[in-house]
Specification:
alpha/beta, five-stranded mixed β-sheet, 10 strands, Nucleotidyltransferase, domain 5, 6 helices, single chain, 209 residues
């Protein structure tokens, strides 16, 4: 019997899912998929692995920030898979997961777009929802050697200038195997109770000094 890890990300566009074993890896990334396709996607990956659900021993799901409906369906789906107690459920923030794409670089940060002029930033273990100027200030102060950034962050003129200024290595938020998140199994405790960590931009009010 194989021992498989399942990775599920519904916090961004569509559904990203992967199964990984010591020497096997299968992945499905569909930006157009919705939550109702999760079961079919998992079945397809299991067939490609020549495995069954009983082979899945650990499940990792992103908790946000991101799409509320996507997060809700993704978390609920993974909770259902783990309810029997046959496998463990690990919840990680989307920014934690993306930071793994920086490899083993300890001095790294993550920047992804929240809405126009606002970004989600993970740096020094802290996550923020802040404006462009504040992101630029934080990056200049922290000088991370590696930054995982989505396309909007890489295209933003202010952020692009700061990343060049601090000479950070920039890595995209897509195109890398989800199995790179495996290191989080060692730092996050499994729990069947997982809640979506969605930051609703429309409710955000910047405190004035």
């Amino acid at each position: 019997m194989m021992k498989l890890d399942l990775y599920v990300d519904t916090s961004r566009k569509g559904v990203s899912m992967a199964l990984a074993a010591a020497d096997r890896y299968e992945e499905s990334v569909n930006p157009e998929a919705r939550g109702e396709t999760l079961g079919g996607t998992l079945d397809d990956l299991l067939n490609r692995m020549g495995a069954t659900l009983d082979d899945v021993k650990r499940v990792m799901v992103t908790l946000g920030p991101g799409s509320f409906s996507g997060l809700r369906t993704g978390v609920a789906f993974c909770q259902g898979l783990c309810f029997s107690g046959k496998r463990e459920l690990y919840g990680v923030t989307t920014l934690q997961a993306l930071q793994c794409f920086a490899g083993n670089e300890p001095e790294s940060a993550v920047v992804i777009r929240a809405r126009n002029g606002y970004w989600y930033l993970r740096q020094d273990g802290k996550e923020s929802f802040i404006e462009t100027a504040d992101v630029a200030e934080a990056l200049r102060a922290g000088k991370p050697k590696s930054v995982v950034a989505d396309a909007p962050a890489q295209e933003d003129e202010t952020l692009k200038g700061v990343l060049a200024e601090i000479a950070a290595t920039v890595t995209g938020d897509t195109g890398k195997p989800l199995s790179m998140w495996a290191s989080l199994f060692d730092t996050v405790k499994p729990s069947l109770i997982q809640e979506a960590n969605y930051i609703q931009p429309s409710y955000f009010e910047k405190l004035k000094a």
